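Extended Data, panel c. Modelled sequence:
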Amino acid sequence: MTHSQPQGGLLHGLTQKLLGIFVSASPDRRNPENRGCNDRGLLVFDHTGEVIRAERLLRAAGLEVEVKGPPPQLRTGCDMVVVFELVRQALVMETLEREGLRPGQVVSANDMLLEPVSLYQIKHLDNRWIMVRAANMKITLDSADGRIVNISGGGCPDVPWVAHKLCGLRLDEAPEPLSMGQTLCCYSLQKAFEELRRQVACGA
């Protein structure tokens, strides 16, 4: 006498196994790194100050956005674009228009096969120092003791003072650059600072 599993039970078990395979193989769409061009739109502005304002407004509205470098086809003098989820385009535009801010262009990355580029350049020196560059600002960390050892770049008047306040501090204890300055250089330094923290958290 044999004991066989009912057919419905077998089908259910097979379905669950197949779901497990495909779900585990699929990228997590909540992770920005796993999104393809099809999911994203780009807001192109003429001036960096507009990019900064758009990012603040959209994040304050609870929208998930990133600031990246523009693809070569979209470079207009401003070396940053705002990347957003295409499914939220209507809300993005409504939020900006309510504050009187209009991008020069709104394009789908998929329409033009455009891929925004990373805003950051990262260098590891002698397996000890990590330098992150964002736009025209650079910040360097000594990974041996976790302290900021150098800040350079930019031509804004508050950069020397901000660098003086941050150099020598541990990265995990240092105040954010934008808490001390509001110039475009401080904005770029803030981006580099955030990426450096992310790199360290990831074991760089």
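Strands lie at 40-44, 65-68, 81-85, 105-108, 120-125, 129-134, 137-142, 147-153. This feature is highlighted in the accompanying rendering.
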